[in-house]
Amino acid sequence: MKATAIANANIALIKYWGKRDENLFLPQNSSISLTTDCLSVKTTVEFSSRNKKDILILNNRNYPLNSKEYKKYLKPFLNKIRKLAGTKRKIKIVSQSNLPKGAGLASSAAGFAALTAAVNEALGLGLNKREMSILARQGSGSACRSIYGGFVEWQRGKKDDGSDSFALQIAPADYWPDIRMVICLTSIKEKKVSSREGMAQTVKTSPFYPCWLKTIDKDIKSAKRAIKNRDISLLGKVSEENCLKMHALMITTKPGIIYWNEKTIALIHKTRELRERGLKCYFTIDAGPQVKILCEKKDLKELIKGIKKVSGIKNVIIARPGPGVKISKNHLF
Ligand code: 2P0
Description:
Elements: E1 2-14, E2 19-21, E3 26-27, E4 31-48, E5 55-58, E6 61-62, H1 68-85, E7 90-97, H2 107-122, H3 129-137, E8 151-154, E9 167-171, E10 179-185, H4 195-205, H5 209-228, H6 232-251, H7 262-276, E11 282-284, E12 291-296, H8 300-307, E13 315-319, E14 326-328
Parallel strand pairs: 5-7
Antiparallel strand pairs: 1-4, 1-14, 2-3, 4-7, 4-8, 5-6, 8-9, 10-12, 10-13, 11-12
Helix pairs in contact: 2-3, 5-6
């Protein structure tokens, strides 16, 4: 009843922003992401009758059962799992990650993907990848994409029960080995508006939301074609456009949500300036101030040189396409 799994964060190229069902985490639109090789979460779980209560330890910090993390995010998910497995046993979860939490770096995606795979193993649920993707989705929507490595599509699905809303791999991590995602950390402060609250508010109040939905099919098709042809210009262009459209939704939510800081904007301009000088680099930004820049290996050196000219960048992480969720024999406790 004890197992460990490792999952990596994924960065969306075509974004998920809005649910059509809050309880089942069903998205309004399909999305596409790249699973990274370096932003990982390792999680060990144990279900035991010795545990009187659930225990949650994230990065060596004990989260009490009245914490927001447990009550709002984890408890409903764990109760779903206990129901599925027909057990009342409490769980101990110990998790270690190398990415800053709540800063728009998909910590919940890697976290819930690792938790899902660990629980599947520990309870012997026997879920295949598709079923794990469906379960992980109900912990955090974007987690369904981190089950797979490489380029991944989360298909919106049409059914009310969510059985056709899961992720599928478009291309494995080694399909495009030269692609890079340069992740520029502009701030490690926790964001004020969570993605969950933000997107719900956007669906309700942004006058642009219906227009966003009308453009998604085209963006998904272009991104898939670009991945198939390993076409960095097309993938970069459609990703950057899609990112700006999503931020237009955020900004026009009532009250407006602005995740950017001054360094985010400086990096947007820097990326475009470098592109005008012939470098194939394209930005994307999620629900936070970090800027992720898509490029190919041959342009990496010049790109980093340019980024270093923007003052105040806290850290730069160079990500490659990475693997999907994996079981590990090395437990954390
Ligand atoms: C994405 N984001 O596609 C988009 C782009 C943020 C901006 O998925 O409520 O943490 O747990 O389903 O998955 C962040 O939202 O939200 C996210 P929930 P989630 O990556």
